[in-house]
Structures are given as C-alpha cells and as structure tokens.
Amino acid sequence: MKTTLGIAFLLAFLATASAATLPDGVTTRDVWFYSEGVKCYGKLFLPKDFAADGKSRAVILAPGWGETAASTEKYAANFAGKGLAAMAIDYRGWGKSGGYVYLAENVRYDDRLRFSQHTAKVRIRRKRLIPDDQVSDIRNAISFLQGEPGVDRLHIGVWGADMAGGHVMVIAGLDPRVKAVVAQVPIIEGKNAERKLSLPKPGSKQADIQQVEVNLARTGEAPATPVAAVAMNAEETKIALAEYHPFWFVSQIPEKTAVLFVVAANDTKVKNEDNAIAAAKVLKGPNSVTTVPGAHAVAGKASDQAADAAGEWFVKYL
Amino acid sequence: MFGLPGLRLGSASVFVAAGIALGSLTATAQIDASIVEKNRADLEKQSKDPVMKREGGTQPLDWGYQLPDGVTTHQVTFYVGGGTPLYGKMFFPRGFTKTGKRPAIVCGHGINALSIGIEKYAARFADRGFVAMAIDYESYGFSGSEVSLMEDDKTTDARAVWEKTARVQLKRTDLNNFKEVEDYRAAVSFLQGEPGIDPDRIGIWGSSNAGSVVIAVAGHDARVKAVVSQIAGTGAAPATTPVNITPAFLDDMIKRARTGQGAEVDGGFSFRSKVDMYSSQRNREVRPGATVDRIPETTKILSVLAEKDELGNPVPAANAAAKAFKGTWQVVVLPYMTHFEMYSGTAFEVDSTLAGDWFEKYLGAPPVMKAKGE
Does A110 sit within 8 Å of B190, measured CB to CB? Predict the structure, then answer.
C-alpha cells in the first residue's frame, strides 16, 4: 500500500515537473490516428499563437528503437516553444497505441462482404519492432497532422533519433510531403550493404535467418503466451533488420528537402562516418551535420543543444 | 473503374518495342519458343473467335481444368505478418514422395483476383513433375483478413501478447502489392520446409499484376531461382525521387489517418469487389523495376506477353528490364492475344508450356511418371 502511494506521489510529481517544462503558452492535447487499421496515440504540442484557422508549420517526432512518445516529448516541447506545432507518437504495439490484432478462433468471412463485425477471441501482440511498420506509422501520423485544423499541410517536417533517424531518411526518400527532416544520431545501416542480393553461405548468420523465415511461414501463428511472443518478436526483428537499408533511400531524397544530421561527439554505438556523414555526402539539397557533446544517448545539456539545433532547422526550412 | 492495373506498376518509361528481346542472352540460355510460331494460326483463330473474346476479365469457364491423372491436391495454411493465416493449395505430381527432392513453384493471382482462377497453371506444372502451390493473398479468397478492434485497446507493454474476447472488424480485398510480395515470400519459405521438396530449387509464377509482383519478389529474395512473369512489364528504372501524391490521394490519406477508412473504388477485373482508393497509390511505391539491379544473376526470368495487351503494352517495358538485367531474362510475345485471352484456349496451352519449359530448364527437370493409359 505504502509503495503504491509512493509511486502515485512520484507520478504526480513527474507530471507536474513535465508540465512545468512546457515553454510559455504551449499547450498539449492527446490525439488518435489510424495506421493500417490500428488506433495509434499522438500527443500534440501547440505553440502559443496556434489558431485553428491559422497555418502553423508542423513536425512529427518519431521515437527511437523500443521507445515511446514520452522519450521525445522534451524535443516536441522545445519545437512548440519555437512556434512549431509538434506531434509525439507511439508506434503500433507500443505505449498507448493499439497492438497488432489476430483472430484466435475461426470466424467466417466472405469477399462479397468487405467489412464484417464479430465478437471473437483475439490475440493482441505488442512490442514488435518492425522498421517498415514504424515507417508506415510515421507517414500516417503525417497524414493526420495534415488534416489538423490550423496546420499548414504543405510545411511538414519529421524528427527522429537512433533507428528513427534511419526511418527519417526512408521517409524523406519515399514521401514527397516532407519538406525538412532532422536525423539525430541516426542509424542508417546500409552504406556497406551490398545492393545485389545473394544467397547466404550455409551455417552463416543469414542462413540461420532464412531458417527462421521457414519456421515462421510454417508455424508462425500469433503466439498464445507472453514467453512465446517475446521469442517471436525477437525472431521477426532479426529478419526485418537484416532487410532494412535506410541508406538505399538517401539518393531518392529530393533536392527541395532540407536534411540536418545531429551527431554525438563520442558516439560509440554508431560510426558517424558510415552513417550521418556518409548520407550527407549523397544528398542533393540543403544539408548539414552538427555535433553535440557526449554519447549516443544524447542527454542533459547536449539534448537541449540538439533540440535547439533541430528546432532552428525546422524554423528555417519549413 | 479502378485506376491503374498493376502492370503499369513499374516505370512508365517508353522504349522502342522490339518484338523479342535477347538482352545479354546467349542462345543456350534461351528456351525454344518455336511453339509460338507453330501455333500462330491457332492464336489468330482464337483472337477472332467471338466465344473466346475476353474483355475486362476472365470468365468462370476459363478457370476450370481437369486435374491431371495421378496429381493430388492438399489445402494448407501458412503464415505471414506476425500470424495472419494464408491459404495455399498444393498440387503434388504423380510419384511424389516425401523423401524425394523435387523442384517447386508458387503461383500467384492477378489484381483483385483469386487463386481458383490460376489453379490450372499449378495443375499443369504438377503434371510435368513439379510441386506447385496456388495461393490467395492476404484478405482474398480463403486467406485471413485484416483484423481491427472495434473497442479501445486497453492492452499495455507489460506483456508481449494478450488474449481476450473482443469486438472486431474484418476487412477483405485490401489490395496491397507490398503485402503480396511478402505473401509470395512466405509461400517460398513454406515450400522450403515441405518434405519432398528441394529448398534450393524454388520458382515463382505470376500473371497480370502478379507478373509485376514476382519481379519485386525476385528483387527482394535470392531464394527464388526461376521466375515467370506473365502479361506484365516493369522496366528497370532506378528510383530517384519519391512517388508523387496527387491532391485527391492526399485528401484520402488524411481521411484514412483520421477515420480509419478512406474512399473505396471498384476494383478488379475477373472478380468484382471494392478496394481502397489508396491501393493504387501504395502499389505505385512498390516499383519492381527499381529492384532489377538487385536481382542476383542466379535468378532466371521469363516474360510471357500478349501482343495486343489492352491494359498497356508491356513489351517495351519488359524488353527494357531484360536488357538492363545482367543475367538471363527472355521475353516471348504471343501474337494477336489480348490481356485476358492468355488464360484460355491455345494461348493457355502455349503460355503454360513456355512457363513449364522455363522452370524445367532452370529448376531442373523433375522425374515425370507417366499417367495411366499413356
């Protein structure tokens, strides 16, 4: 009981602390958007002078690997303080967003009835890490934001860190709606990835992955137990990551899209030379690489500096 | 009418048509396509026969076939996308044993169609000794649906899976070429694990929209050793910019994100049903032609085309892709034929024979046990 109360006090304190960090006049609102049939969570940060009949520039914040909207709120608040509408999101199956839904019993369906409603046993999977799905979620968040009264649909940007820094490259290469992006300590793996496909050598890591694909195709129904679900999440992620090459999309980024890379001076997780810096060399339009002090997990003062750099980039190029 | 048939999926670049392209092909890499010339008169006859005229789709009488003597079928379930069950119908040849090592072929249907329309190809391949598998894509035919909750999802990250009883909505005919690529790949994986099949000798066959999808599959999966792409041309243009979004599609994307469902349009040819308007925007992003440079040279590709294809002439685009590809890619054109005439009569006999010849050449000829009475 004591512990519960303690946690409640702590949470109340954190909520107050978080609210206190909002820049003057910035307000927030929870919103829901749909991504391929799943209801997903977003938190809007609206600047002081935001008006439903106005035309505010807007930015989506994409969480990093295994992160939720909470991890990006500080940046969203910073951007809103600079006059931008900002939207922090949870990916499908994470945080407050809905999960992946699978039927756990047979239900009759017929193509002649395109939509049908049923009460049925389902399995809802969470915490899957599928880069392509996260990219779709971000793009659907862009669509949502473009329809928000007061947002200028022609001036949309995307911010992402870590794996989401790679997602940002993919989106800038795929989606003509994006006018400016910021990739912080991005993982753009693929610079060294052979573009030509090849068959894995027997016994190699890739061969193991192919065996997992066979297993999933033959027995991969939605798992019934959390233990099985955790194991399946890991297997699916291994496959998805092996095929994810954000670097291949960099050359598709149009000249009009402005790209800022924010890298950490002492990053031991990603090699800036092979990721942000290599990508910058391929870009046709305005781009810049800016360095903040510290490690990959940009924190403390470095994160203030990173947020300011990103916010200013969006203000300049949106 | 549904906007773009899938065969325009790829690059729209215009190249000068060149009958039969050889690309970098040497004579020994080709199959003998003289069956086309041998049947020229019959193809012309088919094209002039009012009973065989096909416009805007095939007809149920085109789907029927006699199961070859000794070929057996078996329905299977395989999985994709984290647990969505898909339907496949296996065709096992005469003399099939689980201890053997036969080559196998996945057969996929066209835009908004069903596997029942192309089972005849699987049956034909099985008659020639291959194991063949005809599949329904996700949300089509007997395959599983897109499932959405109709109530708030109260599950949390405390567990990786939650089982409960809930109100759900099932959505059918969600035309999505990205998912079709994954459906084919899951079928290849399924076959690789099937007893009696050689996992290193898997081919794929696709017609119409699937003729483009199979090229994208080849560009994503080196396990595919032989490909037959029927009545489709993808070109081989690299992707250098994002795919354009028109204002109408943009409005629809916003509606989808804010309400969960966008506009619907009539979809399909042989099987009429509604599809999401957004499908054609999304399918344009697949860009199979842009993956041609990734296809390994160990993958051998045959395009079988209809000279009078009314859905857009695929010959120049197929020739361009064949030319750009560093490996073996043969293009054969059936004279007089329109798109939907390829599935019946003489055209079917010719195109299914060419496909079978291709698979024999590049997957290796399976042992064929004679049918009773032969």
Answer: no
According to the 3-state scheme, what is the secondary structure of B299-350? CEEEEEEECCCCCCCCHHHHHHHHHHCCCCEEEEEECCCCHHHHHCHHHHHH
Are the beta carbons of A124 and B162 separated by less than 8 Å?
Answer: yes
- What angle do the packed helices A131-146 and A163-174 form, to 10 degrees? 60
CB contact under 8 A, A37 and B146: yes
**Which residue does chain B place closest to A254, by CA atoms?**
B241
Instruction: Retrieve residue B344's tokens.
Output: 């019946």
Q: What is the pLDDT of residues A44-97, one digit of tens each?
A: 999 999 999 999 999 999 999 999 999 999 999 999 999 999 999 999 999 999
ipTM for the predicted complex comes to: 0.93
Q: What's B244's DSSP letter?
A: P
* Tens of pLDDT, residues A215-224: 999 999 999 9
Please write down the HEC assignment for all residues of B92-114.
ECCCCCCCCCEEEEEEECCCCCC
Q: What is the largest CA-CA distance in chain B?
A: 69
Residue among A114, A48, A124 nearest A92 (CA): A124
Contacts of A1 (CB under 8 A, 6+ apart): none
Q: What is the pLDDT of residues A224-249, one digit of tens each?
A: 999 999 999 999 999 999 889 999 99
The answer to whether residues B146 and A37 touch, using CB atoms and an 8 Å cutoff, is yes
CB spacing of A197 vs B245 below 8 angstroms: no
Of B78, B84, B172, the CB nearest to A111: B172
Is the CB of A164 inside 8 Å of chain B's CB atoms? no
Residue with tokens 């925007």: B281
Q: Calculate how close chain A gets to B337, using CA atoms only, in Å.
A: 30
Find residue B78's DSSP bridge partners: B86
Residues of chain B with pLDDT under 70: 1-27, 373-374
**A168 contacts A63 by C-beta, under 8 angstroms:** no
Q: How far is B276 from A115, CA to CA, in rounded Å?
A: 12
Q: How many Å lie between the alpha carbon of A256 and the closest alpha carbon of chain B?
A: 11
For A282, the closest chain B residue by CA position comes to B240
Query: Residue B373: how many CB atoms within 10 A of its CB?
Result: 5
Find chain B residues with C-beta within 8 A of A190's C-beta.
none
Residue of A216, A251, A257, A284 to mutate, interface with B, max B Cβ within 10 Å: A216
Which of A39, A95, A243 faces B157 most closely, judged by CB atoms?
A: A95
Cβ contact (<8 Å) for A217 and B168?
no
Asked whether B254 and A144 are in contact (CB, 8 A), the reply is yes
CA dist B272 and B112 (Å) reads 8
A101 in Cβ contact with A118 (< 8 Å): no
Q: Does residue B304 contact residue B355 with C-beta atoms inside 8 Å?
A: yes
Residues of chain A with C-beta less than 8 angstroms from the C-beta of B288: none
Interface test with A, best of B112, B161, B176, B274 (most A CBs within 10 A): B161
CA-to-CA separations, B305 to A133, B6, B338, B355, in angstroms, rounded: 35, 14, 9, 12
Query: So what's the pLDDT on residue B255?
Result: 98
